Amino acid sequence: MARQRWLLGLIISLTAASLFLLLNPILKLGTSPFRLGLDLQGGSQITLQVKPSDTIKDISSPEGQKAVGDVERVIADRVNRLGVSEPLVQRVGNDKILVQLAGIKDPYEAESLLGRAAQLEFREQKAGTEDKFQALFNQYRPLINQETALRKQIKELKKPEDRATLAALSLELKKVSQQSFTEMFNKTGIDGRNLKEAFAQPLGTAGDDWQVDIRFDADGGLKFADMTKRLAGTGRSIGVFLDDTLISAPNVGIEFAQNGITGGGASISRFTLDTANELAIQFKSGSLPVPIEIAENRVVGASLGQDSVQRSVYAGLGGIFLVLVFMVLYYRLPGAIASIALVIYTLLNLAAFVLLPGFVLTLPGIAGFILSVGMAVDANVLIFERTREEIRDGKTLYQSVKGGFTNAFSSILDSNITTIIACAALYWLGTGLVRGFAVTLTMGVLISMFTALTCSRTLLFYVLSIPALRKPEFFCPNPPAITANQSSQSSEVV
């Protein structure tokens, strides 16, 4: 009996904690405790067009399709690093990638989150272009400074005309760079594929200017050392190009003429904090093997309107209520206990949704949750039917309840394991919303086993300790007569 009291206290504590976790955001902040997916709260949808490159002319070729797959992986990794709620990144056709970002209802913000293509290259300035380059770069620098100043105010750029100005300026920078600087630099083969690490670092103590420190792999480190050795003391620059746009042109001092800059590292300086962090994320998530451009960027409304969401909630609550009524009417006292266990299961499951890192509630996730509710009831049905069979065989209530749980355990375990295997396959092979369904169903199955085998069991044995409720007719219709000897055995055991 002491064990039953301890388990009962644990159940009450978990239920109270779940209620607090769910109600506190609603009462305190007036907000939902759940992170909602794109289909429930809306967001942004971006279609990326994969473009051919110098090395990959045909996107439909096997090499091109492999490059599209690499782009999809890099974009997914980049979005995941930015912490966007359950993004959907999937291929559309042979040369497009669809990206859905829940909660990002500003098209400009969505485009900023994805970032640019991040094709980083280190190029070597050609001999004889020193004077021409310096004259052009002096005209080009104000554009860079203007863009940097605008990006410092990126979070304050609420007006469409301000954002249009920044977008036009970025496009102008790219055009000027491609028309004026590209022909002055030779490619060296040092690009984003040679990066091992990238991270943002402040320049000085003020923290107004930032740099991105990068580390090359062995091959990239050797190439970088050879390039800097050739450029040291010549007055020619290292061209740091991002998506064919010149973003920095540092010189190499004469002191590196003998060995070049060794150590396998370099720094790209003078960025804002946000831009430096964005570039570091882009570099770490990988360089794109082919260029991309944004073919479409639009805001997506929730596929379920507010009225539809409310109706769905009411329909779900009504269904659960009918299940509870059926359990009480058909299974009597055990059905009432199962109803209490089902309410506890619902609270624990919803609390798990809040606690699970990165979990986002979507429409398929709600479907998985409702399906798991049905499976939780199914476990109780197996237990109670086994209990009735034991009672009809003339066993005491305690023996019948114990036998019901013991005999039904293998069936419950087998059915839940097969469901979890199916969920694992869905999670492994599926993407986006399908994974959300698999996660919610798996979580529901695990919690339902706990409530059916712990909550229902504990509550039933606690009921058996109350003489007024220890009557066979409360557990089974038309039970066989129990002898005085059996009744005393039942009282003694409990």
Residue share in helix: 55-70%
Strand content: 15-25%
Identify the CATH architecture of the largest domain: 2-Layer Sandwich
DSSP strand tally: 11
Question: What summary fits the major beta sheet?
Answer: 4 strands, antiparallel
Molecular shape = elongated
**Secondary structure category:** alpha+beta
CATH topology of the largest domain: Gyrase A, domain 2
Q: What distance separates the N and C termini? A: 8 Å
Describe the structure concisely:
The chain is α+β, with helices and mostly antiparallel strands. The protein has 13 helices and 11 strands. Helices cover 58% and strands 15% of the residues.
Description:
- The protein has 494 residues and is of the alpha+beta class.
- It has 2 domains: 2-37 and 304-493, Up-down Bundle (Multidrug efflux transporter AcrB transmembrane fold); 43-300, Gyrase A, domain 2, CATH 3.30.1360.
- 58% of the residues lie in helices and 15% in strands.
- The chain is built from 13 helices and 11 strands.
- The chain has helices spanning 2-29, 38-41, 62-82, 107-114, 130-152, 160-181, 218-231, 273-285, 306-355, 363-392, 397-429, 433-464, 484-493, and strands at residues 43-50, 88-92, 96-102, 120-125, 185-191, 195-203, 209-216, 238-242, 245-248, 265-271, 292-300.
- The protein has a 4-stranded antiparallel β-sheet.
- Helix 5 packs antiparallel against helix 6 and helix 11 runs antiparallel to helix 12.
- The longest helix has 50 residues, at 306-355.
- The radius of gyration is 32 Å and the shape is elongated.
